[in-house]
TrEMBL record:
Pfam short name (any one): RlmN_N
Originating gene: rlmN
Family label: Belongs to the radical SAM superfamily. RlmN family.
GO MF entry, a single one: 4 iron, 4 sulfur cluster binding
Cited SUPFAM superfamilies: Radical SAM enzymes
Annotated residues for binding of [4Fe-4S] cluster: 111, 115, 118
Source organism: Clostridium colicanis DSM 13634
Protein name: Probable dual-specificity RNA methyltransferase RlmN
Length: 343
């Protein structure tokens, strides 16, 4: 049995031909799944019983089941725990903005990057998600809220560039007209900075936004927070980003989680200015989400404002990320971890 969501339209056309059915059936099935949100072959009314049986013998529609759902009373952010057929659980978050619904999807079950502040990586990696499984998160979420999702950020559990081939296929699928028709400029991929893969992505010349989880102005500090810093230096990351923005004409987003006494002083802001000088970029400051597994503490608002001020003064556009869903443990990996511990 195969997950039909892992078949591109072309793949499915080919399958139809090989199975002596009309190629146009593939498009009909895509319409049921991606346009109408129907996840049961039996409800596809323009498909004959014969073909339905053939499909059911070969495929399942791998949209995950909703295990739990939490809605923030503060801002309406919704967090979902989804379960795949093999029992693995991941989380997805929907944030409601004026310009539309944004979903934060997971790309792996767990993560092997080992960032010290992150709850998703504590148990290591379980497995990669296929592109259809990642798309399934959007399909399930849309049917849960009964509204279209127009923006996607790959910022849930997992390192997208550690699951590169599936992530590229996922972007193609959701971007395609017959799929979810989500514009490339409405897709953001966030990475801890796997340099060769950033370059490979740049060569694809997609119009997606690249976000880098920088979190430190120097290699020394970064090494204390993120093991990946032992492999790639900040200079190598910034060079790869420059290459990405030249290739795509896109502005890079740098995410910087402020941790009290670790990376939030004026001297750090100045160091960051020097690092990013001349790059087409934008810095997003994030008050770190405190988790019980480490001692990292949120910076004071005063320090956060001062950090922003220093960056702005040296010409770097800077925003402070609004905290969403803080009453529902919306930070990376916290829900899955709590769920796994209590079940
Ligand atoms: N692996 C990718 C995407 C997943 S993490 C990456 O590293 O970018 C999504 C974002 O949440 C990253 O910027 C990550 O560094 C950040 N993050 C993880 N745990 C956090 C925490 N406790 N507080 C604030 N941001 C956190």
């Amino acid at each position: 049995m195969k997950n039909i969501l892992d078949f591109s339209l072309e793949d499915l056309k080919l399958w139809m031909e090989e199975n002596n059915e009309g190629k146009f059936r593939a498009k009909q099935i895509f319409e049921w799944i991606y346009k109408k949100g129907i996840f049961d072959f039996d409800n596809m009314t323009n498909i004959s019983k014969d073909i339905k049986n053939k499909l059911k013998d070969n495929f399942y529609i791998g949209v995950p089941q909703t295990v739990n759902k939490y809605t923030s009373n503060i801002d309406g952010t919704q967090k979902f725990l989804f379960k795949y057929r093999d029992g693995n659980i991941i989380e997805s978050v929907i944030m409601k903005y004026k310009y539309g619904n944004t979903i934060c999807v997971s790309t792996q079950v767990g993560c092997r990057m080992g960032c010290k502040f992150c709850a998703s990586t504590i148990g290591g990696i379980v497995r990669n998600l296929t592109h259809g499984e990642i798309a399934g998160q959007i399909l399930r979420a849309q049917s849960e809220i009964n509204e279209r999702i127009s923006n996607v950020v790959l910022m849930g559990s997992g390192e997208p560039l550690d699951n590169y081939d599936n992530v590229i296929k996922f972007i193609k699928l959701i971007n395609s007209e017959e799929g979810l028709n989500i514009g490339q400029r409405h897709i953001t991929l966030s990475t801890c900075g796997i340099v060769p893969k950033i370059k490979e992505l740049a060569d694809k010349e997609l119009q997606i936004t690249l976000a880098i989880s920088l979190h430190a102005p120097s290699d020394d500090i970064r090494k204390t927070m993120m093991p990946i810093a032992n492999k790639y230096s900040l200079n190598e990351i910034v060079d790869a980003c420059r290459y990405y923005s030249v290739k795509t004409n896109r502005r890079i987003t740098f995410e910087y989680a402020l941790v009290k006494g670790v990376n939030d002083k004026k001297e750090h802001a100045k160091e960051l200015c020097n690092l990013l000088k001349g790059l087409l970029c934008h810095v997003n400051l994030i008050p770190i989400n405190e988790i019980k597994e480490n001692d990292y503490k949120k910076s004071n608002m005063k320090d956060i404002d001062a950090f922003k001020e220093t960056l702005t003064r040296c010409g770097i556009e800077t925003t402070i990320r609004r905290e969403m869903g803080s009453d529902i443990n919306a930070a990376c990996g916290q829900l899955r971890k709590n769920y796994m511990e209590s079940n």
